[in-house]
């Protein structure tokens, strides 16, 4: 049995035609199912657990990166297969998963090509794609052995799981993909800062880790799978659970 979690923005008329095409394909493939429309206050974990009790085996997220993060930040530990039907803008995660933002996504869902994905965890929520801390005066301790402080320099921190991190190196653009079984961190000190100029960075330090503590005397901004929060201390680690995700042949990992 399938259940489809629709983001609330899909009520806009501009999505009606694409949704109808997708829903027709799902019916043709005999994988149509119950539709639940998400709200900002929806407890995704509770919704998914309730549907599992009713016999659902596949939960399909319908929306964009923000929808993906909204559901999996709470429901990643649920024992079910997840699918994704990307619709509209802001769908970088779908590209990594090899799922097009068109009715062809229904074909991929029907083929049920599955992989098991590592899940990151911080401050009582999950992230599957990437965690980003904007340039801040942070201190980083990882694997209880190494400590890096900013020395009054702001640093940017990116922790990759599913989604790789790209940056401009000395001679060329560089993209580094995460490795299985560990999270990877990219720490870049800010070289120059100005109100009117784009930030310039020093070369990043790149390291895999299992557990990291990031702290600061003042709040810093954390973006993780489409969600933003202000924190003064977070613990980041690889979660014990993994998720089964339906992906396309052209996935980026």
Q: Would you write up a description of this structure?
A:
By secondary structure, the protein is α+β, with helices and mostly antiparallel strands. The chain folds into two domains: 2-112, Probable inorganic polyphosphate/atp-NAD kinase, domain 1 (Rossmann fold, 3-Layer(aba) Sandwich); 125-239, Tumour Suppressor Smad4, CATH 2.60.200.40. 19% of the residues lie in helices and 45% in strands. The chain has helices at residues 16-28, 44-53, 65-75, 92-97, 104-111; strands at 2-6, 34-37, 58-63, 81-86, 114-122, 125-127, 130-136, 139-142, 146-149, 155-160, 165-168, 173-176, 183-192, 200-201, 205-209, 211-224, 227-246. The strands form two sheets. The chain has a 15-stranded mixed β-sheet that branches. A two-stranded antiparallel sheet has the order 11-12. Helix 1 (16-28) packs parallel to helix 5 and helix 2 (44-53) crosses helix 3 (65-75). 36% of the residues are buried. The mean pLDDT is 90.
Give me a quick take on this structure:
The chain is of the alpha+beta class.
Task: Offer a few descriptive terms.
253 residues; Rossmann fold; two-stranded antiparallel sheet; Tumour Suppressor Smad4; alpha+beta; 15-stranded mixed β-sheet
